[in-house]
Amino acid sequence: MRKFLFLAAIVATLASCSEYQKALKSEDTKVKYELAERLYKEGKFKKASRLFEQVVPRYRGKPQGERVTFLYAKSLFEIEQYIISGYQFERFVRSYPKSDSIQTASFYEAKSYYMESPRYSVDQRETIKAIDKLQSFINIYPNSKHLDEANAMVDELTTKIEKKAFEIAKQYNTISDYKSSIKAVENFLSDYPGTKFREDAMYLKLDAMYNLALKSFESLMEERFNEAASAYKTLVKFYPESKYKEEADKIMASITEELAKFSK
Hints:
By secondary structure, the chain is an all-alpha fold. It has 12 helices and no strands.
């Protein structure tokens, strides 16, 4: 019985492949479309997308064009062809502004850009584009069922942008370019006042100011140690139980010792 079922499965698979290959080569648009729909429903999105690609131009301007264009874009999204799916969903939105699927298409257009966002350490132009697309969707469809997911994606992408900016400031500190690190932190806090890295940035600024003071000419030391002390006070004011409290307290103790030398 098992052998029979196995053979039947092989025969069915071969028949399916043969049907698919025939449809690809067929000049009959209806044959292509019907098989594409069936494959889409079966979750065979790669095969479906190839057939939809062939029939989309033939249905443009016809009643079926709206559905074909949407399913083509969605099948591309499902096989992770996000650049092309984003383009196709955008095209759908422009071509069928009165469609019942316009909101869903707009969401998946934005999500396609989200999926293309790279890791934080590289150029973030695609991430910025994705944020713009998602924010536009949120503004146009504030009551969408996709709203929570869209907001979560915006939050994730914004954090990625912030992390890149923070890591740049951190890198300056790592290579002992303390002036650049301080400036980068100040710009960072100005650009992203609500950032999740605010506490980290404040501590980084304190650390950079302290090290800059230590390596300064004697004529600049007192002023710079006082500036570092102010950075410490700002940190503990906003974060009295800071995760950096122990390290910050040690820095402040050293600053106090250094400033005492100038009062003698």
